Design the sequence.
């Protein structure tokens, strides 16, 4: 085989991979939209295929079944959230880092509220979907606790205490999220955000004491 033939052979699979990734991306985009709009049970493979512009067999070929597609679509929904937190961790000051993490969390919730609302509904209403979502949600939550713990570690020498404080702070954030679905008025949400920051400021002031 000459050099040109070898070059053609080496590069041949790349367009195929690109087409495969593009098809998967279209299916996942359609899945995220339809699952959010209709829920899991009322979303059919036929509707997914039609919105993605592919055949039903293509959906099955790329993802196996609807449950696997649902789990992958949900995982993809979490990627921007994780990436934004990773970028925030590049800050240096541990006290300021906590508040930047709050800003990222709350900003992400505001930007993706239409996608987060059905996730909360699925977790509360469907044992089947709760089982499917449990692992990725808990993994994301655990990573967030570690991120907050990292922000505290310079102020709290005891690792167990730092993790416990981080878990408490994350619980307050998650509580604010749930309250926002019950009472989404701007004044209520602002009060809860302000409360979280005041509690954290008090905590930091006690940690700064000799």
Sequence:
């Amino acid at each position: 085989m000459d050099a040109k033939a070898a070059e053609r052979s080496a590069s041949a699979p790349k367009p195929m991979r690109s087409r495969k990734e593009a098809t998967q991306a279209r299916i996942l985009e359609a899945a995220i939209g339809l699952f959010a709009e209709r829920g899991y049970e009322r979303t059919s493979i036929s509707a997914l295929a039609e919105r993605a512009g592919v055949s039903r067999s293509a959906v099955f070929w790329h993802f196996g079944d609807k449950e696997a597609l649902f789990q992958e679509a949900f995982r993809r929904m979490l990627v921007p959230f994780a990436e934004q937190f990773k970028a925030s961790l590049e800050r240096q000051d541990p006290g300021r880092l906590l508040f930047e993490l709050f800003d990222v969390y709350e900003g992400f919730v505001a930007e993706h509220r239409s996608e987060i609302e059905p996730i909360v509904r699925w977790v509360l209403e469907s044992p089947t979907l709760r089982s499917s979502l449990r692992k990725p949600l808990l993994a994301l939550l655990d990573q967030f606790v570690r991120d907050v713990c990292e922000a505290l570690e310079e102020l709290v020498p005891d690792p167990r205490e730092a993790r416990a404080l981080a878990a408490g702070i994350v619980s307050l954030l998650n509580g604010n999220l749930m309250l926002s679905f019950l009472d989404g008025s701007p004044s209520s949400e602002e009060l809860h955000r302000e409360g979280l920051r005041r509690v954290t400021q008090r905590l930091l002031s006690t940690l700064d004491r000799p």
About this structure: The chain has a mean pLDDT of 81. The radius of gyration is 22 Å.
